[in-house]
Amino acid sequence: MMVFMTTDEAKALLKSATGSEGPVALPPSVLGSLMLADVPEDVLINIGDVKDNVIHLDWNGTLRNQGGKFIGEADYTFTRKYWYNPLGMEQYFDLVRRAVEVRSKTHGDVDDIHFEDDGAYIQFSFDIDTNATDLDAAYRKVKAVCDQVDEAADQASDDIGKRIAEVAARLSGWGAESLDSLVNAVETAKSSDAKGRSLEELVSRLLETVPGFSVTGRIRTATEEIDITVLNDSNDARFRRESALILGECKNWSGKCGKDEFVVFRSKLENRSQRCTLGIFVSWNGFTGTVTKEMLRGSKDEYLVVPMTGKEIRAAVRDKNFSDVLAGCWSSAVNF
Hints:
By secondary structure, this protein is of the alpha+beta class. It has helices spanning 7-16, 89-106, 135-171, 179-188, 192-207, 237-240, 259-270, 289-297, 310-319, 322-334; strands spanning 2-3, 24-26, 45-51, 54-57, 61-66, 69-79, 110-117, 121-129, 213-216, 219-220, 225-226, 228-232, 245-251, 276-283, 304-309. It has two domains: 2-163, no CATH class; 175-334, Trna Endonuclease, Chain: A, domain 1 (3-Layer(aba) Sandwich).
């Protein structure tokens, strides 16, 4: 459950944190009512919502009151052990660092650039002068700066990831089997890898039949793996209102998927810089009742996860009407 915070509670929390070494976590919803005078100079602030006693950060970094203005410190710290980006760690951060250095010269709003590579970790940080006196404006500024310096590295990573996915699909014989054969492969595959890949191909090829959808395969980012990504240019009124990016998750397990898998997938939507509001979660053998409860709890969020099961996929293949089946599942999720 998400914890809500009032302005008075936020002010009291900031005041009580004076002298504390750890940062204070504030939700984005309360930032607009907090000014410089409300933030003691030695207090660091993380931005994120508390859900089920866990802080979900909106941005990796801290904000602070320094010299009568808000300063943000962007924090890029990653370990090679958990780096999943198709672009190498050194190459990715080299591009980001170059972008930060150029911005320092051209805009003058970033400085105190720190970069360290000890072999296991890369630690990279820099300060952003927000020139803002209210916390909401400061937060919008630091996020905008980080989005801009990340652009080139993210684009290079996306291009490499798509190219790898295309080569892997070609080598795996993607598209060689009929949809009916793929349904059979999904149900009879012996290994976990074969089960997962046959379902991913089946769902991807069905999504390609939806007018306006452009589908790519499995993509790795720095912190996670995404089964299917869809660029949404649909003219259907139901999908047109959704974001330009749609994510797909496929689980071909022997049992039903539960709440934990559902929550993890929804977090992938949240991690797309507010550019993804719709996800399609396919669990071939259905969902447990805990997923129903989770959908009820999240029904007020802007993010929508559409559950689909093998029964619905089989019917769509049999009747050759996947667009209609998907629209029906979307409507059921919206009106849940």
